[in-house]
């Protein structure tokens, strides 16, 4: 933060930002930025204007003097640092726009994200969970408008943005605020109050922010074909403000956080689920005395079942519907009434059961992982019963935990020793913790998510380090291959069609080629080292050719000492075999002596038979350590072959499964420039193919591409597709 004594008016900051290096940003984007900055500045001013009143009211109701003094001290701190925070916020805001205007440079989140939760204190965890909820509410409410704005920004700047790194996205807006307010010396309780006020006075009007920005871009012809999003009605605002106010006072409940979008999503799911109702009922004939099972009682039944979830090998035999039917029958008989589950709860049960049917049959997941996730069915069902936004909010901690586990374990192979694998043991521990500890407080999912992300982050860093080493080695191999081709060109240009002593041809092909190759790799093919190595090659070739002129023989006499020194130094630098080097120089000395002693008759040199000459007719191909291409590479596919097109669409980070006769192995693509390089989940190289060879392997079924999209989203899409098809019949 800047020194508090140096308060600069916000207008000055705005003027300064206009002089920032934004030449790459289109004019319309600058207009969007400036209009948004005005709204954000007004929102921040409203926040701080109301923060005093809010904190004063809380201090007036404080339970003791200590709490009251803390709140009064927080009020003082806010007044002193208000201008600095407002200024810092806009600084970060303008900086983010500068970054999207620069090639290959996107804004990064500095203060928010679960990746670092386990590395910070519990207060930071609480703060980050609150931030996640704030961002999720904006996305659920105004996500479509934000996505359209992101697409338009991407079209303007010429590089792909995503919603989290959109300078106007809720994640970035929160990030600016956190970074600007780092100097605040207040406790977590006051921080959460200020964050709620930020949500109320800044984030709550995001629809206006996105609506005006989209309209401005549409007016200038930026993706006008995108369907406009209707603005929120004015009568929707007071309710949202009441919710934010209640949250600031610490009275937020799961139902309060279920916004209109979440309600609409679940209502649409219920409409699709109506045909499958009635599957969870007691095995008794219905009687007059029917009593609905309350949600609280249902949670008790599920908690009872939760303790009897079978171990991993028997998970496939666990039928949730059957288990619930047995429990309901037992409860009905005991109470003498027909106990029926409420429609809403039954819909949740059916939907979760269908989701887990998909998960347990998903071939993209390793079998061992499917069995572990299968044991999470009841905890996931309970959290969905408690909070229906589980189905609509992608950032829901329970949903994220499921997705993160599936993503981290994507590389598990059938032959991996799960009982010794740290990742498997970590997931097993999470599952066991849920089964033994989760009753009705969904906060456990946030805690487990934070712990798992910290663990997987460490794992990922280690794996990425090995991946980078593998990538560097492959890039080095590719550079070596190009340099080898360059050396071959120079050798063939000098030797093809010439008759030379065999020993010289062998030296140039087997030894001096390595000297030239090293010069190319270290210094490039325009360097003085490269040119000197080629010059030495030319001088050697010239020195062993017959010369009739006296002047040429004098030049040879002068040339030989320097030539021999250059050859010795070069071969030594390439670590060429000293014994072979000595043998060559002995033969070369003999050749040079012969060149001086060879008689000249009638202007022609009479060759000594001891000098074996060879005529170089075939192109020289330097040996390469690269293994020969599999036989599949010899097959040629048409340019429009589906397998070849699939290879073209492969992205870095994509996972495939290798299907051999006795083994199934998973690996990830890390490079696809010269050849397609795949590594296992620890970063070690597993396989490489040429483009054509990989396409042939895909076509023959030796390779299968894995779907590494988010597990929960994939399962939900599949279930919805099934339900819609059933409804259409």
Automatic annotation (TrEMBL):
Ranges of biased composition (kind: Polar residues): 248-257
InterPro entries named in the record: DUF1631 (IPR012434)
Top-level lineage group: Bacteria
Basic and acidic residues bias (residue ranges): 233-244
Annotated region (Disordered), positions in chain: 229-257
Name of the protein in question: Thymidine phosphorylase
């Amino acid at each position: 933060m800047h020194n508090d004594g140096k308060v600069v008016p916000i207008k000055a900051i705005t003027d300064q930002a206009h002089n920032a290096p934004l030449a790459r940003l289109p004019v319309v984007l600058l207009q969007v930025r400036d209009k948004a900055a005005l709204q954000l500045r007004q929102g921040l001013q409203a926040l701080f204007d109301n923060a005093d009143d809010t904190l004063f009211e809380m201090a007036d109701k404080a339970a003791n003097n200590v709490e009251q003094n803390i709140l009064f001290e927080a009020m003082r701190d806010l007044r002193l640092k208000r201008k600095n925070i407002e200024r810092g916020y806009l600084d970060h805001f303008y900086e983010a726009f500068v970054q999207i205007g620069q090639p290959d440079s996107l804004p990064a989140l500095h203060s928010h994200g679960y990746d670092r939760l386990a590395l910070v204190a519990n207060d930071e965890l609480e703060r980050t969970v609150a931030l996640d909820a704030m961002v999720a509410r904006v996305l659920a409410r105004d996500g479509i408008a934000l996505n359209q704005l992101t697409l338009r920004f991407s079209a303007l700047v010429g590089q792909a943005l995503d919603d989290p790194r959109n300078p106007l996205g809720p994640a970035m807006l929160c990030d600016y605020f956190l970074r600007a307010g780092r100097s605040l010396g207040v406790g977590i309780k006051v921080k959460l109050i200020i964050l709620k006020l930020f949500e109320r006075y800044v984030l709550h009007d995001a629809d206006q922010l996105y609506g005006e920005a989209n309209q401005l871009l549409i007016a200038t012809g930026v993706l006008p074909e995108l369907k406009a999003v209707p603005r929120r009605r004015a009568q929707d605002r007071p309710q949202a403000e009441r919710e934010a106010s209640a949250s600031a006072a610490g009275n937020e409940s799961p139902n309060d956080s279920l916004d209109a979008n979440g309600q609409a999503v679940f209502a649409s799911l219920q409409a699709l689920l109506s045909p499958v109702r009635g599957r969870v009922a007691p095995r008794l004939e219905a009687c007059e005395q029917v009593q609905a099972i309350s949600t609280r009682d249902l949670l008790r039944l599920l908690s009872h079942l939760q303790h009897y979830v079978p171990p991993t090998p028997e998970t496939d035999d666990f039928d949730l519907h059957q288990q619930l039917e047995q429990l309901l029958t037992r409860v009905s008989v005991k109470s003498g009434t027909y106990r029926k589950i409420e429609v809403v709860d039954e819909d949740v049960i059916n939907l979760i059961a269908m989701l887990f049917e998909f998960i347990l049959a998903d071939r993209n997941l390793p079998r061992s992982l499917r069995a572990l996730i299968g044991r999470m069915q009841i905890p996931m069902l309970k959290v969905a019963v408690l909070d229906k936004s589980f189905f609509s909010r992608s950032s829901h901690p329970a949903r994220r935990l499921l997705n993160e586990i599936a993503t981290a374990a994507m590389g598990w192979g059938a032959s991996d020793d799960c009982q010794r694998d740290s990742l498997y043991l970590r997931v097993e521990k999470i599952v066991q913790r849920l089964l033994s500890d989760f009753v009705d407080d969904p906060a456990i999912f946030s805690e487990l998510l934070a712990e798992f992300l910290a663990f997987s982050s460490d794992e990922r860093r280690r794996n990425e380090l090995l991946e980078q080493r593998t990538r560097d080695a492959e890039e080095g191999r590719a550079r070596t291959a190009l340099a080898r081709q360059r050396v071959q060109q120079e050798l063939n240009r000098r030797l093809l069609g010439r008759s030379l002593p065999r020993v010289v041809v062998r030296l140039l092909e087997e030894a001096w080629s390595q000297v030239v190759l090293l010069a190319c790799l270290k210094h490039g093919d325009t360097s003085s080292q490269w040119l000197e190595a080629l010059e030495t090659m030319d001088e050697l070739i010239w020195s062993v050719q017959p010369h009739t002129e006296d002047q040429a023989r004098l030049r040879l006499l002068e040339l030989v000492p320097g030539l021999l020194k250059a050859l010795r130094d070069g071969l030594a630098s390439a670590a060429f075999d000293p014994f072979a080097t000595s043998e060559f120089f002995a033969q070369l000395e003999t050749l040079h002596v012969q060149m001086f002693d060879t008689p000249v008759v009638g202007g022609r040199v009479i060759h000594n038979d001891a000098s074996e000459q060879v005529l170089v007719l075939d192109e020289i191909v330097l040996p390469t350590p690269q293994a020969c291409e599999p036989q599949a590479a010899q097959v040629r596919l048409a340019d429009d072959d589906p397998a070849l097109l699939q290879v073209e669409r492969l992205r870095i980070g994509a996972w495939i499964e290798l299907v051999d006769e006795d083994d199934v192995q998973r690996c990830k693509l890390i490079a696809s420039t010269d050849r397609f390089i795949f590594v296992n989940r620890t970063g070690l190289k597993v396989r490489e193919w040429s483009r054509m060879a990989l396409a042939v392997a895909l076509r023959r079924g030796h390779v299968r591409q894995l779907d590494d999209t988010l597990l929960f989203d994939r399962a939900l899409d599949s279930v919805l597709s099934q339900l819609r098809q059933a409804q259409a019949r």
